[in-house]
Amino acid sequence: MHDLLQRFLSLPWDQLPQWLFLIPAGIMLLAAAGAVVFRNLIHCALWLVLSFAALGVLYMALGAEFVGFVQLLVYVGAVSMLVIFAILLTPSDEVSASNNPLVHFKLSSAVNAVIGVAVTGLVLVGLLAAIFFSPRAGGVTLPAVAPTLPVAKIGENLLSHTLLPLQAVAVLLTAAMIGAALLAKEDKRS
Amino acid sequence: MNDFFKLIWDYVLQFLGLFLKNWDAIPTETMRLLREFLAKLGALVGFTTPQWIIDAICALVAIVAIIAVFMIMFALMSVFERKILARAQNRYGPNRVGPWGLFQPVADGIKMLTKEDLVPRAADQIVHLLAPVMMVAPALMLPAILPYGHGMTAINLSSGILYFFALSAGTELAVFMAGWSSNNKYSVMGAMRAIAQMISYELPLVMAAIVAAFAAGTLSPDGIVQAQSGYTAGFLPNWYICTPWGFAAGALFYIGALAEANRCPFDLPEGESELVAGHLTEYSGFKYAIFFMAEYVGMFAIVGMFVTLFLGGYNAPFPFLEWIPSYVWFFTKIAAIAFSFVWVRATLPRMRIDHMMQFAWKFMLPMSFAALLALAAWHYAGRNALGWGLSAVLVAAPYLLLGRFCFGNRHSPTNRRYYFSE
């Protein structure tokens, strides 16, 4: 009994965190699959949110705390609401009627399945090829401990090396916001 | 066996000895003693206790302590809120259960536990069940990063403020899940109102928090509290609320916190005269109690954030009061702000929905930018007469201009337009 406990405690527990990342990664993949499988659009949106959240947890597990929190704040907090509002505000019968050109191509489910598998396979093959045949493959040695990036360093980097892209993004977002306000503004003529 | 009891007795004596020394250090010293005790306990049985077991037990103790404190605060708040409201309305309030009605929360809890848990047949069963879970999980995780006293931060994150707002963003999803899954028009409308309100008020809330973070130069709550220690001219504490820009940002954060916690005058999502009970309409029994609990724990967490960001956290207000332990100051400030929340609820009527949205977008958001500008002026002019004057003007001028011109002239009534019925 005593010996067993001692052996249990002397297992390589220090390496456990390296394998724990499989939990959020698995949840993320399953939730992403759930987001396309279910029929109810709201359920799909909720699965998508779970996949966003799991990705945030994955970032945190990799030591990128700041990016993980931003992922939660932006995707779980804002983008999910955007998706849900879009689903709720879109009349559900509009798409299935004559508006959608794809409806006229009535394909059998077998052909659908073949197309789906082919597209997924193509994407997977492309990804794997990009990973294994890229010039840097094999040459990259990862550090033993995940580097942690202090928040102040990210801020300094944003405001020195990447100042121009940052400002370009800011201008783009301002333009988008003005556009949204213009669209939402009530029409004075009517 | 004798050694075992001797060890425990030794550490009990050491723990009691802490009360004779510095009271401020009792919680941190207790945790240190616990670590030592666990290591020696392992050595007594015959093996070296791995570090991760000690860490896990200490983390568990901290979690239990924090959740217990917040649960007790929730129970006390639920009875004192009713007492204070009753006093404001010239009544007695609950006084039947226990001395002065103090055991009222126990009676409420038993009532909620034994009530039937009704789920509408048309409801989405799984989402209906998950919504309270989704609501309560972030609320219980929020208090983890608050600095309760000197060295008393459970998780000292370098981006703690971001953690706080990232988690509280999950509440919106929970409210939507509750409203949509109930399959009830009132529920969906209430949820939509609640989400619109939360999103609108989150912007000024975060902007006001950014002002405090900029002033301290860090996103860590403990760092922000430490930046507010000390006194100007020997009596005025260096709290951010005592500066022009900090006063503006603090007021905005206070109003935003009221709205985020769905407190009066921003309790429209539960406007019972229009929406029954909003997204809570189809909830009963313990699920309803869990929503209630999540709301109150979230309120205490956001009040704790307000205290941390603007009221100096665990710092004493005057130098001669520094002998009182830091955690006592922190919880005293939380209690004071919670009392003011109840006072506001007893005083103000509920806002109309379009007024509420206009207030958030046309007044609070520009004011939070003005507070940021005033902070910049303070930063470059320095802590002198010029800095005080410049930042005071940069706060007061937008306040007057926005108040005067954004909402039109209130004294000439025009035809009311109903934007939602056209």
What is the top-level CATH class of one domain in chain A?
A: Mainly Alpha
The CATH topology label of one domain in chain A is Four Helix Bundle (Hemerythrin (Met), subunit A)
Whole-angstrom Rg of chain B: 24 Å
- Mean of pLDDT of chain B: 85
Pattern of helices and strands of chain B = HHHHHHHHHEEHHHHHH
Description:
The complex is a heterodimer of chains A (190) and B (422). Chain A is built from nine helices and no strands. Chain A is mostly helical. Among the domains of chain A are: 17-91, Four Helix Bundle (Hemerythrin (Met), subunit A); 150-190. In chain A, helix 3 packs antiparallel against helix 4 (41-61) and helix 4 packs antiparallel against helix 5. The longest helix of chain A has 25 residues, at 65-89. Chain A is extended and about 85 Å long. Chain A starts with a helix and ends in a 6-residue tail after the last helix. The mean pLDDT of chain A is 78. Chain B is mostly helical. Chain B folds into two domains: 2-49; 115-405, no CATH class. Helices cover 67% and strands 1% of the residues of chain B. Chain B contains 15 helices and two strands. The chains are: A mainly alpha (190), B mainly alpha (422). The interface between A and B is medium-sized, with 27 and 27 residues.
In short:
The complex is a heterodimer of chains A (190) and B (422). With 190 residues, chain A is mainly α.
Record keyword descriptors for this entry.
heterodimer; A: 190 residues; 74% helix; B: 422 residues; 2 domains; 1% strand
How is this fold's topology laid out?
The complex is a heterodimer of chains A (190) and B (422).
Chain A lengths: L1 H8 L6 H5 L1 H16 L3 H21 L3 H25 L2 H8 L9 H25 L17 H10 L2 H22 L6
Chain B lengths: L1 H17 L7 H20 L5 H38 L15 H11 L10 H17 L18 H9 L1 H12 L3 H32 L4 H7 L3 E2 L3 E2 L6 H17 L11 H4 L9 H26 L15 H22 L5 H29 L3 H21 L17
Helix pairs in contact in B: 1-2, 3-12, 3-13, 4-12, 5-7, 5-12, 7-8, 8-9, 8-10, 8-14, 10-12, 10-14, 12-13, 14-15
